[in-house]
Structure formats: C-alpha cells, structure tokens
Amino acid sequence: MSSLLWDPGPVALDAGARDEFALFLARAALAAGPAVMEEYDRGCEVSSKEDGSPVTSADRRAEAIICERLAGLRPSPPVCAEESIAAGTAPKVAERFLLVDPLDGTREFLAGNGEFTINVALIERGAPIAGAVYAPAIGRLWVAGDTAFVCEAPLGGDLPGEGSRRLIRTRRAPLSLTAFVSRSHLDPESDSFLKGLPIGDTRFAGSSLKFCLIAEGLGDVYPRFAPTMEWDTAAGDAVLRAAGGAVLDPSGRPLSYGKADRGLRNGPFIAWGDARAARRFGY
User: Fold this and answer.
1) What percent of the chain has pLDDT over 90?
2) What is the bridge-based pairing of β-strands 96-104 and 79-81?
3) Could you name the CATH architecture of 177-280?
C-alpha cells in the first residue's frame, strides 16, 4: 500500500481509501491461507486457553503472518489480534485500529468441515469500515470497503483481478425469512428470538460465513446472544454493512467496536440483511 493511501491524520478515510485498504487486508488474509491449510491437512497441535476454548498451531501461524503484513503499514495503526491478547497483551484501542481473528471457527476447523475463516478488519470511530473474510478450505474471499464483493481465491494465489470479483448486495426480506445460526454455538436466547419471527428456513454455518452469506442475499437474519469477541465479528460485520445490511444490538443500535473496558467482548446482536425488516419487528 502506498503512503498516499494511508492518511495518518484524524480525517476519516474516504470511499476510495477504504476500498484500497480493504484490498490490503484481503492480501494479508490470503497470505495466511497456506499455513492454515497445511495445519488442517496434517493435523495440528491443539491446546486450551484460560477460558477453555481451543487454540491451535494454525491460529498462531496465521496470526504471525497477518501481523507481519500489517506491520508494513506506515504509520501502523494499533493491532488487536486474538492470540496475542489471549497470551496477555493488553488491547490497544484507538480511534482507528485493526482487529485480527487468524482462525475464526476453530471448532469447525477441528471438526474438519471446512467452515472456518481468516478475518481482518479496520475499525474507525467504533465502526468496521473495511474488512476481509477468507475461507481457505473452499477458496472464497469476501472483501468490504465502500462496497462489498466476493470472488474465488484459490489457495496460495494472489488477489483476483476486478474481472473475477462479483459485487454483492443483501436482499429485500421476504415474508418468510431465512435464518442463519451458529453450527457450534446455538444458544437458547437466540433460538427463542427466532421463534418470534416468521422463519421459513433455518440454515447452519460456522464462523463469519453467516454474515457473508446474508451479505450475498442468501439469508435474512442471524441472531447471536451467546458471547463473542470483537475480532470474531468485525470483518463479517464490515462485509454485511458494505452490502447493505446491519448488525444491531437488541435496542437497535449498530454493534460498536473498541470496547477496551470490556476486554473487546461483544454483547448480544442481530445481523439483518434488510434493515427495514429489523424495524418491522421492533429492532
């Protein structure tokens, strides 16, 4: 990224700069793909964090690769990366900072179902304004700046050119909604929330894929009342917002980022493809 694309001042990034920054984040995510898949194919080392959640050698290798890429930014914004923070590094939150989840969907990774992603996002003034979600097992990449696109991104390849990218938009919510829910973390409150909506179809998916599939117009709502961290959601949230959707807390406010006083922990949220549907149901 040239220095002209990264403004160190307090002015918010304009649309063109957001798009260029998103491509930089996409390349960082793509760079980590081969290491993740190498660990996936051969069977990686697994241990437990203090909170009991699993962490693998793939998480650590991917984070190191991504952070090395991000360190090339001049000036470099603060980086909040999952495994570094789990190891005791204090969150460094600023008006503009980066969130890294080197392997979102570790349980899906260990289950061998391919539904895991590599997530990188730029936060500005509490909102995700650029992001990349890469699913290396299926070779698909979602990128969000001012707009959002999806493309095929084979393992080890460079960022595909513009001709291979498909712009994506959310759909207008039908009378009967399609819900996405977590394959590994469906909680009773999320299930109860869905029972109050006209759900015609419920689909299961892992990691940030739920945000991305709604962004492509393949679903309408994804509630999550169980705990998540900001790095779990930021990149997928960026994709969904850029595609016309919204990620709201139960009171109807956009999900915010940079909550250092809460250890970067999210509260409950509902991801909507059509914000009008959220208002229709009182959110």
Assistant:
1) 75
2) parallel
3) 3-Layer(aba) Sandwich (3.40)
pTM: 0.93
Q: Where in the sequence of the chain do the CATH 3.30.540.10 domains occur? A: 3-167
Name residues whose C-beta falls within 8 Å of residue 194's C-beta, 6 or more positions apart in sequence. Answer: 179, 181, 202, 221, 223
The pLDDT tens digits for 190-213 are 999 999 999 999 999 989 999 999
Q: Where in the chain do CATH 3.40.190.80 domains reside? A: 177-280
The span from the CA of 241 to the CA of 250, in Å, is 17
As given in the structure block, the two tokens for residue 201 are 């179809």
Which CATH class for the 3-167 domain? Answer: alpha beta
**pLDDT at 140 exceeding the cut of 50:** yes
- Scored b (16 or more CB within 10 A) or e, 57-95 reads bbbbbbbbbbbebbeebeeebebbbbbbbeeeeebebee
Q: How far apart are the first and last CA of the chain?
A: 39
User: How far is the C-alpha of 199 from the C-alpha of 133, rounded, in Å?
Assistant: 27
Say how far apart CA 251 and CA 89 lie, in whole Å.
32
pLDDT for 162-183, tens place per residue? 999 999 999 999 999 999 998 7
Q: In angstroms, rounded to a whole number, what is the distance separating the alpha carbons of residues 279 and 3?
A: 42
pLDDT at residue 153 in the model: 96
Q: Name the nearest CA neighbour of 258 among 224, 239, 234, 228.
A: 234
Residue 264 near residue 132 (C-beta atoms within 8 A):
no
34 near 137, Cβ under 8 Å?
no
